[in-house]
Specification:
By secondary structure, the protein is an alpha/beta fold. The protein is built from twelve helices and twelve strands. Helix 5 packs parallel to helix 6 (about 155-165), helix 7 runs parallel beside helix 9 and helix 10 (about 255-265) packs parallel to helix 11 (about 300-310). Bound molecules: iron/sulfur cluster (SF4).
């Protein structure tokens, strides 16, 4: 729902200021249409249905994974494609992964989104409409900005969307923004009042390899990015997640695990804050095939890499892969949009 247009439409009709909040409250609770909003007059509901599309996105396609993951492909009103995912976990968590851009201007070599053409930034309403879509399916409680796009390149819209996520059941503490290391964005997020989590897509602990995998490293070198993450922790006291996709023979060797541990340990601090809480936690991500030249590390290599990090005192988890069979797992989004784009533009 275009929230700016909602305000305008209601103001033009002389409706009281609280009416927009009333409409939003219904939408955030999972209403399926204006028809559901029973404490709003039928006349006004009819006007809204005529003048303001209930969602700024149209659903093009949905795919259901065997593990319960649900992927949705949307188009914006001007025909730009984007994808979002609902992940269902056995412990009851319902986490959504949303996009901040249609396509991505950055060109990380292992990422399907990076291989498609960048269209544009999404508006706050277009971001929220992804969340509202899944909220209509069932209650949700976590949100990660790890879909298509680099959220820090569209941070004002991302933060505007985050402000409203608690109305849908997703608190700021359960919201994570992921970045490839766009330092101005990390600094801006650190200044935000909202206690949102930060995740850094690192993927290599050596400058040269990281520049090869992620050209953005030429602009914001690794050591500067890690410093920005430490400053984020110092300001927010929120632990930073380090995302590390495991690529066979590329970044999964023992000495590379040691280099990563060294990078995160920092000068004399052991990677720990003064209260001895670790500043960083590493998430090892099994690589999902996207048609790139890379292959995923074996289960054994991932276990050995994890053990090497733990031996250095670095907290580590291995991410549970969700939705791989429907190309909804990490780095796979947009794999099918390429095909869809021709449909959308025809
Ligand atoms: S990993 Fe993120 S920043 Fe890099 S190309 Fe993919 S979507 Fe863009």
């Amino acid at each position: 729902m275009d929230l700016l247009k909602l305000d305008q439409t209601l103001a033009d009709r002389g409706e009281p200021g609280f009416r927009a909040c009333q409409v939003w409250a219904w939408a955030a609770r999972g209403a399926r249409s204006y028809e559901d909003m029973t404490d709003i007059s039928t006349e006004l509901r009819d006007v809204l249905a005529r003048e303001l599309p209930f969602s700024s996105l149209s659903l093009q396609e949905e795919a259901h994974s065997d593990d319960g993951t649900l992927k949705a492909l949307f188009a914006t009103a001007d025909g730009r494609p984007l994808e979002a995912v609902l992940m269902r976990f056995r412990d009851g968590r319902r986490s959504i992964c949303v996009s901040s851009q249609s396509g991505c201007p950055l060109t990380c070599k292992f990422c399907a989104t990076g291989a498609m053409k960048f269209a544009r930034n999404l508006s706050a309403s277009e971001i929220l409409d992804q969340a509202l879509h899944f909220r209509r399916v069932e209650p949700i409680d976590h949100c990660v900005f790890m879909g298509m796009g680099e959220p820090m390149l569209n941070l004002d819209a991302v933060l505007a969307a985050c402000e409203r996520l608690p109305d849908l059941g997703v608190t700021h503490r359960r919201t994570t923004i992921s970045t490839v290391g766009w330092i101005p964005g990390i600094e801006q997020l650190a200044e935000s009042e909202m206690p949102i989590r930060l995740a850094l897509s690192l993927h290599a602990a050596e400058e040269a390899l990281r520049s090869e995998l992620m050209p953005v490293n030429e602009r914001f070198p690794l050591t500067d990015v890690i410093e920005a993450c430490r400053a984020f922790y110092a300001r927010k006291r929120r632990r930073v997640f380090i995302e590390y996709v495991m690529l066979a023979g590329v970044n999964d060797r023992y000495e590379q695990a040691l280099a990563l541990a060294h990078l995160l340990s920092g000068p004399g601090a052991g990677g720990r804050s003064r209260s001895a809480e670790p500043i960083f936690k590493v998430n090892l991500i099994p690589y999902n095939p996207t048609g790139s030249p890379y292959e995923g590390s074996t289960r054994e290599s991932i276990a050995a890499f994890r053990a090497a990090l733990e031996a250095q005192g670095v907290p580590v988890t291995v991410r549970l892969t969700r939705g791989r069979d429907i190309a909804a797992a990490c780095g796979q989004l947009a794999a099918s949009v390429q095909d869809q784009r021709s449909t959308l533009s025809s």
